Amino acid sequence: MSDVNRGDRPLSPHLQVYRPQITSVLSILHRATGVGLTLAACLIVWWLFAAATSAEYFAFADDILTSLIGQLILIGSLWALMYHSFNGIRHLFWDAGYGFELNSVTSSGWMVVIASFVATALIVLIA
Q1: pLDDT the model gives residue 17
Q2: Sign of the Cα pseudo-torsion (28, 32, 30, 107, in order)
Q3: Taking burial as the number of CB atoms within 10 A of a residue's CB, which of 35, 40, 41, 64 is the most buried?
Q4: How far apart are the first and last CA of the chain?
Q5: What is the pLDDT of residues 85-112, one digit of tens each?
Q6: Do 115 and 107 touch, CB atoms closer than 8 A?
């Protein structure tokens, strides 16, 4: 196929062509929460490193993590962990061959989102 026959059309579809669907949004969100959890793990390692270094450095790190912004980051990380875990369980069911019907995919996606928020709220309220 030559470029003349193709016209101004793109070689492959772009995100602007497609309407977001729950499966694609949750897939992207699963990847993003995985990256976020890696950054949260680095934050925890920094906090532990501060604890092993000195009392002053630990107090500095602890002040940052217990500040309003630090608390929001920790709650966001907790939500990412809950979402990533529940969506991982959903993927395990898919790997076993269950839940591929369109209505099942949609309902399980919404269940993952709702469960992640409910679990995060319960943990924050209990802790």
Answers
A1: 74
A2: negative
A3: 40
A4: 62
A5: 999 999 999 999 999 898 999 999 999 9
A6: no
Torsion of Cα atoms, 84 then 25 then 100 then 116, to 10°: 30
Answer yes or no: pTM beyond 0.85.
Answer: no
Q: Which structural domains are found in the chain, ordered by start? A: 20-126 (1.20.1300.10)
Taking the CA atoms of 86, 87, 92 and 94 in sequence, report the sign of the dihedral they define.
positive
Burial class from Cβ neighbours inside 10 Å (0-12, 13-18, 19+) for residue 114 reads exposed
> In this predicted model, which residue has the larger pLDDT, 2 or 18?
18
- C-beta separation of 126 from 65 below 8 A: no
pLDDT digits over 40-59, tens only? Answer: 999 999 999 999 999 999 99
Spatial distance between the Cα atoms of 29 and 11, rounded to a whole number of angstroms: 26
